[in-house]
Amino acid sequence: MRFILKYIRPLGSRVAFGMSLKLFGSMMELLIPYILSHIIDDITPLKDVPQVLLWGGIMIFCSLLAWAGNVIANRFAAGVARDATRAIRHDLFGHIVSMNSRDIDRITIPSLISRMSTDTFYVYRVIGMTQRMGVRAPIMLIGGIILTLTLDPVLSLILLAMLPFMAGLIFLISKKGVPLYEELQHRVDELVRVVRENASGVRIIKALGKTEYEKDRFQQVNRGVAQQETKASVIMAINNPTTQFLLNLGLVLVILAGAQRVNSGLTQAGKIVTFMSFFTMILNALLAITRFLTIGSKALASARRLQEVMETETEHTALPAAEEDPSAPHIEFRNVTFSYNHVQPTVQGISFSLPKGSTLGILGPTGSGKSTLIKLLLRFYDPDEGQILLSGRDIRTMELSDLRPRISAVFQNDALFRGTVEDNVRLGRQLSMEEVNDAIVRAQAEPFINEKGGLESPVQAHGSNFSGGQQQRLLLSRALAGSPEILLLDDATSALDFKTEAAFRAALREKGGSTTLIIAQRISAVMHCDQILVLEDGLPAGLGSHEELLRSCPLYQEIASLQLGGEDA
Ligand code: ADP
C-alpha cells in the first residue's frame, strides 16, 4: 500500500482535482431522485405542466453535469494511473539491472518478468479504480443512507439491518482473497518460466522430438494457473450475488412496508419511488466496493511482489577506496573461497597471481567452478573468504563502474543483439573504425563478415543468422575491441575449428597487452598459457606451466593423455 502511495503522491494535485470533480458528479447524481420525489409528491398534484417541465429540465441538467463530471474525472484517473505505473516500471527496471546476483538467483528471472508485466498491470488497474470508485462509492453509500434516513427513517431501518451482513461478507472475502491471489501470481511465474524455457530451447525441443512432452509440461502449469484462478474466483464470485440478494431482499421488504405506510397515510408514493432509486444507488455502490476489493486483493498481492524487488539490495557497494600499487601483481586471488548456497563451497582456497599481460588457463571438468572464478573477478558475487586484488587493491574497494570497464569478458552463452555487425562489436562504446577492424581481424572474424556483406550486415536476435563458430568470433571481436586491460574468455573458442583457434591464439599472443584468463575444455586452448590452474570440485588440483603440470599434476596428465594422445603428453 505504502509502495503505491509513494508513486501517487507526486501526482497529488491531479488526483485531488479529478476526485473533486467526481465528488461534484456524485452529488449531482444524488440530487436526481430527490427532484423526482419533489415532482411526484408536490408538483404533479398541482397539475401545473410548465412546473413539471421546469423541474424535468433541472433533472436533465443535473444528470448532464453528473455525466460531464464523471467523464472528465475518469480521464484524469486514467492519466494518473498511466503516469504512476510508468514511474513504477521505470524504477523497477532501473533496480533490476543493478540488482545483486544473489537476489536475482533467489527471485528468478521469470518471476522478475511477470512482476514487470502482470503485477504492474494489476497496480495500474487499482490506481485507476481507486480514483474512479474511491470517492463515488462511499458518497453514494453514505449519502444514499443519509438521504433515505431523512426521507423515511422507518424504511431506512430495513436498509441498515442489511449492512452488518454485508460488512461481514466484505471482511471475510478480503481476508480469504489476498493469499489466494498471491499464490496465483506464483503460479503465473511458473508459467512464464516454462514458456521462457520453451521459447529459448525451441530448436532443441524440436530436434529431440520433445514437442509433445513440452506441451504436456506446459499444460500442467497452465492447468495449475487455471485451478488457482478458479479457486480465487470462486471465493470472489460469492460476492456479487450475495450482495445483490441481500439488497433485493431489502428492496422487497421496503416495498411491502412502504405500501403499508402509504395506505395508512404515513408517507407518500413519491417518497417510496425515491427511496427505491436510492436503494439501487446504494446497491451499485456496494457492488462497486466489492468489485474493488477483488481487484484490490490482486493489486495488493502484486504491490507486495513489486516492493520485494525494490527492497533487494543493489549490487555491492564499495568499501573505502584504496590505492593501487603498480609493482604488485596485476591480478591476484588470495585464498578465495565462495559458496552460492552458503552451505557447500563452490570454490575453495584458490590462489594465483598474474603479472600484467600474462595469461592464465583454467582447466577442469564441468561444474568444477571455473566460471565462478570469473564471476567473482567481475564482482557478480563477492568471495566469502579471501581476497581478489587488482594491482594490489582489493576489488571490493572499487566502484563497479570503475572495475567493470577495465574488463572484457566472453561467456559461454553470451548474447548477440539484433542490429548490425558493427553495433554488436561496438556495443555502444566510442571506438575508432581502426579499433573495430583490428579486433575483427584478430578474432578471425574478417573472412565471414566480408562474405556476409561487411560491418553493415544484419545480425538477428541471439545471432541466429550466424553459425556457432561465427557467433563466437563476433563475441571475441567485441571483447577485443576495447583493448581491455583484462580479458576473460569463458569457453569462448569451443566452437572454432583447431586451425582458427590456433590462429586466434597466435593473434592474441602477438598483440598482447591484456592480462588474460582463458577457461577451456580443450587442453590445446590453454597449454600455451603462462600458467594453468587445474580445478577439481572447486579445489585447486595444480597450478603451473604446461610442462610443470605434466610432471606434477595427475589430473592434468590424465586430461593431456586423453586429449593430446600419448606422445605429446
Ligand atoms: P564450470 O564453469 O567449471 O563448469 P561453474 O563455475 O559454472 O562450473 O559452476 C560450479 C558449480 O556452481 C556448479 O555445481 C554449478 O551448479 C554451481 N552454480 C553455478 N552458478 C550458480 C548459481 N547462480 N547458483 C547456484 N549454483 C550455481
Could you please describe the fold and organization of this structure?
The protein is an alpha/beta fold. 66% of the residues lie in helices and 11% in strands. The strands form 3 sheets. It has a 6-stranded mixed β-sheet, sandwiched between helices. A 4-stranded antiparallel β-sheet has the order 2-1-4-5, with helices on one face. Strands 7-8 form a two-stranded antiparallel sheet. It is elongated. The model has no long low-confidence stretch (mean pLDDT 87). Adenosine-5'-diphosphate binds next to α11. Adenosine-5'-diphosphate (ADP) binds next to α11.
Helix content: 55-70%
Report the total helices: 20
Give the bound compounds: adenosine-5'-diphosphate
Distance between the termini: 67 Å
The order of strands across the largest sheet is: 6-9-10-3-11-12
Shape: elongated
Low-confidence stretches: none
The largest sheet is: 6 strands, mixed
Query: What's the Cα radius of gyration?
Result: 35 Å
List keywords for this structure.
single chain, 569 residues, alpha/beta, 6-stranded mixed beta sheet, 4-stranded antiparallel beta sheet, 12 strands, 66% helix, 11% strand, elongated, binds adenosine-5'-diphosphate
Can you lay out the helices and strands and say which pair or pack?
Elements lengths: L1 H7 L3 H32 L5 H49 L3 H7 L1 H43 L1 H48 L1 H6 L3 H27 L1 H25 L5 H43 L19 E8 L8 E8 L4 E5 L6 H8 L7 E6 L2 E2 L5 H4 L3 E4 L8 E2 H6 L6 H10 L3 H7 L5 E2 L8 H14 L4 E5 L7 H14 L3 E6 L2 H4 L4 E6 L2 E6 L1 H7 L1 H15 L1
Parallel strand pairs: 3-10, 3-11, 6-9, 9-10
Antiparallel strand pairs: 1-2, 1-4, 4-5, 7-8, 11-12
Helix pairs in contact: 2-3, 2-5, 2-10, 3-5, 5-6, 5-10, 6-8, 6-9, 6-10, 9-10, 14-16, 19-20
The structure holds adenosine-5'-diphosphate.
